[in-house]
Structure formats: C-alpha cells, structure tokens
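A favour, since you know our structure tokens better than I do. Go ahead and set the record down below.
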Amino acid sequence: MSGPGPAPIRLVVGLGNPGPQYRLTRHNLGFRVLDRLAERQGLVFRLTRRGEEAEWAVPGNGRVLLLKPHTFMNLSGQAVGPLVRRHGWPPAAVLVVVDDLALAPGQIRLRAGGSAGGHNGLKSLIEALGTEEFPRLRIGIGHPQGRMPVIDWVLGVPWGEDRARLEAAVDTAAEAVETVLTRGWDQAATRYNATSLLPGGGRAGGGDGGGV
C-alpha cells in the first residue's frame, strides 16, 4: 500500500543507537518498534554493514525492508541515503519510526514530512535524502522536567507511568506500521494519529504535539 504520496513504502527505518546499554532508552523506541514488528510477523534480522535488516513480503504491497542503522543516531543518514539511492526509491517510500520530545509520552502521530525539530537522527536523514518530505511515525517521550539536560532524558530509561505508556506505545506503533503497509496511509493516520497510550492498554485522544 502507498504512503502519504503516490510511492509505496519500500523501507521502514527505526532510529536508535546500537548496543545493549541503549536498548531500553527513550531514544531507541524506533529500534524497539521494528523488533516488535519483526516478532509479530515472524521476521529475522540479519547483520549487514549498515546495521540490522529484515525483509517482509507484505501481501498486496510487495517486499519491504526493515532497517535499524548501526551508525549511531547522529549519522543515521549515512546508512539510509546510499541504500535509498541504490534502489532508486523516492524519499516518500521511506517510513521513519522516531522518538519525539514534542509529544506526550505514549502519544502516536503519523506525519507526511516536516522539519527535524532538533532531532539529530532526522536531521541526518534530511541531509542524506535532500528533503524533509518523507513520512515518519512519531512516538512521544515528553520533555524532561526541571534542569535535566535533554541528552540525559533521551538516553535515560523511562520509569513508572511513562514506562507503562511507552511499553504500550511500542505495541501500538508496530500495529500502525502494519496498517500503513497493508491498508494504506490514510487508514493508519485516521486510526492512530494522536493516540495516547495509558497504563493497562487504554487509549486517550490527544492533540498535535507540534514541532516535527
């Protein structure tokens, strides 16, 4: 099925940092969503020079590549750009799963494009693809309170209610990616945009977090 433009999604990129010390951090939600998607679909990641890759033969859509870049967040474009150019995919065929400070913890939002909003992984992708016009699935992590530096927040492990919301968001985001690929962008956006995950699996509607 197609993304927000005429091009079908051919690549799903989960943003994060490689290494066990980062696995459960807020900044690694993109990796975790792809892991959950692979579990749901019975896919196995293989290690390549770009990172970890898995291929999904999506009924009615063809083959879609899942990629977790191992370049570290700030250099994600170095893994994605050459791959996209080699296959001749337009940027609109690349769906990026990314954590977002501008949304409340657990909130989900599909966007057809937009600025990096201070996210270094998105900034690297925009530079590599030469455009801001590629779709992304944003997962809210909220802002740090008090004087905590943003870098400590995004590289920290959530706890309490935030942890419950983000654990639920990983499941729902994996479902959202499946919906984009099997039923199309419009159906996915209608169903999942601004969805806030509550502890216990409940949902509460939310507004646009703004920003990216």
Summary: The domain at 11-205 is CATH 3.40.50.1470 (Rossmann fold). Residues 198-212 have pLDDT under 50 and may be disordered. The longest strand covers residues 51-58. The chain has one domain: 11-205.
